[in-house]
Amino acid sequence: MQPITILLIDDQLMVGEAVRRSVCQEPGVEFHFCSNPLEAIAAAKRVRPTVILQDLVMPDVNGLDLVRQYRADPATKAIPIIVLSTKEEATVKSEAFRLGANDYLVKLPDRIELIARIRYHSEAYLSLTQRDEAYRALRKSQQELMEINLELQRLTNVDGLTGLSNRRYFEEFFDTEWRNAIRSGEPISLLMIDIDHFKQYNDTYGHLGGDEVLRAVAQAVKATFLRPKDLAVRMGGEEFVVVLPQTPASSIASLADKVVRSVESLGIPHSHSSVSDKVTISVGASTCVPTSEVCSSDLIENADRAMYEAKRSGRNRAMIDPH
Questions:
Q1: What range defines the domain where residue 120 resides?
Q2: Distances from the Cα of 186 to the Cα of 177, 233, 287, 297, angstroms
Q3: pTM of this prediction?
Q4: What secondary structure letter does DSSP report for 6?
Q5: Whether residue 95 is found in the same domain as residue 191
Q6: Domain holding 87: CATH number?
Q7: Which of 89, 238, 239, 301 is catalytic?
């Protein structure tokens, strides 16, 4: 347990000695004395007392001014202050309490009373300090736990290989955006993307090489769609999806072609592709204005059908679903 630490500010050495003798036999008590009132604030910051005994009448400095200074300084503002006066004066006592003193004693008080007041104020201060420290520790733990939970949530929504969103998050996001589109009456578009002849790439360059291609294609796809609400997803294997809220049919063809050219421009060699000597993709696109009578899976199926039509038509291209 933290000891009770007394700091006496008094210009009279005899008073300092008398107080020291009164408290020196008390267990768990440390005593510090400062005879120069000009050094009182610095001494309080250095000693970090649990209670300050403050004389009122001293040369150069008014004791009440020191009380005001303790309360104005963040390092000392909460430390209990027991004012020591040569006599009982109602106006002085009232002013001392107004300025922030916790207690008022006429010096030198009875030893038993002095120790009782010191213990009372010190223990109350220590309890308050420990409570505040426990609260800060709790807040820190809560913040750390919240950050961990947010990171875990992020990780459950992210594909570990490519850094894109995963299928789980796609389902949540697409459902939300579909309902938003029903309310707003705005179109929503979807791209289905598949890497051409990816199995042959893996057979030729190995799975590590295949992983590098997946990462490169993922970044090219993500870089093509930069609006805040656009979502690029790795659905699994070599298949990707891009959700494009508030995107009309008039825009989808150019966007789909743009992502095809973006991947082709990576220039990743693919010696066993029947389409090109580089890695390419096939893209299917579909758009609709959702209503309560339309099923969201229809948009996915239409985009998927368009993607397979792009493959049948020679790959390395985008096809738009006509529906």
A1: 4-134
A2: 10, 22, 11, 17
A3: 0.58
A4: E
A5: no
A6: 3.40.50.2300
A7: 238
Q: Are 63 and 104 in contact (CB under 8 A)?
A: no
pLDDT tens-digit map of 221-237: 999 998 999 999 999 99
Q: What CA–CA distance (Å, rounded) separates 119 from 296? A: 72
| Residue 238 falls in the annotated catalytic set | yes
Residues 126 and 245 both lie in one domain: no
For residue 38, say if its preceding peptide bond is cis, omega within 30 degrees of 0. no
Pairing of strands 239-245, 188-195: antiparallel
Q: Which backbone phi and psi does 82 adopt, to 5 degrees?
A: -105, 115
**Distances from the Cα of 103 to the Cα of 98, 125, 206, 268, 302, angstroms:** 11, 13, 81, 80, 81
| Beta bridge mates, 191 | 242, 285
Residue-wise pLDDT tens digits, 13-69: 988 888 899 888 888 899 999 999 999 999 999 999 999 999 988 888 888 999 999
